[in-house]
Design a protein that fits this description.
The protein has helices spanning about 15-25, 40-45, 65-80, 90-110, 115-130, 135-140, 145-160, 165-175, 190-200, 215-225, and strands at about 5-10, 30-35, 55, 65. The chain is an alpha+beta fold. The protein folds into 2 domains: about 5-80, Glutaredoxin, CATH 3.40.30; about 90-225, Glutathione S-transferase Yfyf (Class Pi), Chain A, domain 2 (Up-down Bundle), CATH 1.20.1050. A 4-stranded mixed beta sheet has the order 2-1-3-4. α5 crosses α7. It is globular. The structure holds glutathione. Glutathione (GSH) binds near residues 13, 40, 52 and 66.
């Protein structure tokens, strides 16, 4: 049995952006299915009790959950495992974890770190995602910005760095690990590049992205990544 591959996702979800980058890079034919942000659990119940996006369903109907395992699965099934085999495995695993630990945490503060930026973000999200008419407006203007603003502010406080500084430090550390090569993976990107690219790209639909564009080496790498997309 063969069916078209699908990705259940939210348009603004950083973890979904990781997978979308690899899909675009490989030029895969995948149907993107935007789920209702208020009904994620129900929308992906077919994949078991994971209850989160992204969920990737391959042509054999196999469901894979969690963005990094999805990246690995796609590389294995659709790219002959070339990216996993590229370079030192331990270095790759270490930095994959680094992107998931550090970059994912830096993404929330930059989008929600101040009440103003939280409001900008939720308003933008309500335009990009699929909501009902009423919940769309409620989402943009009511509890969410405030609640998420609080969570993000706490994270910023715990770290002690402003969201922009935190992102700049991470980009410096990340591009410093490229050993003078154009990508983390060397002459061509690997799974670590797509993980990091996904986190950074998830900020791109928001005005706060301009806080990142003046990071020279980070932005140069980001543009090189964009140029590898089909
Ligand atoms: N570690 C997971 C995180 C996925 C995740 O947290 N997705 C969010 C959307 S950005 C979600 O679906 N949350 C629903 C929930 O936690 O109930 C991954 O990398 O895929």
């Amino acid at each position: 049995m063969s069916q078209k591959a699908t990705l259940h996702m939210l348009y603004t979800c950083p973890f979904c952006w990781k997978v979308r980058g690899l899909i675009e890079h490989l030029g895969m034919d995948v149907d993107y299915i935007g789920v209702n942000g208020m009904k994620i659990k129900k929308s992906v119940a077919f994949a078991g009790d994971w209850g989160k996006v992204p969920v990737f369903t391959d042509e054999q109907g196999q469901h894979v959950v969690n963005s990094t395992p999805i990246l690995r699965h796609i590389d294995t099934e659709y790219n002959d495992g070339k990216m996993s085999a590229q370079g030192d495995k331990e270095r790759q695993d270490t930095w994959l974890e680094w992107t998931d630990a550090k970059m994912s945490k830096a993404t929330v503060p930059i989008l929600y770190g101040t009440l103003g930026s939280a409001l900008k973000t939720t308003t933008r999200i309500s335009k990009l995602e699929q909501f009902g008419f009423v919940s769309k407006r409620l989402y943009a203007w009511a509890g969410f910005p405030i609640m998420w603003g609080f969570i993000a502010r706490k994270r910023v406080k715990n770290d002690g760095r402003k969201p922009k500084q935190l992102w700049h430090d991470l980009l410096t550390e990340f591009t410093g690990s490229h050993d003078g090569q154009p990508f983390f993976g060397g002459a061509s990107p690997d799974l670590v590049d797509f993980s990091a690219f996904g986190y950074m790209r998830s900020i791109s639909p928001f005005p706060q992205f301009n806080l990142l564009t003046d990071h020279e080496s980070g932005m140069a790498w980001y543009k090189r990544m964009e140029a590898t997309l089909a």
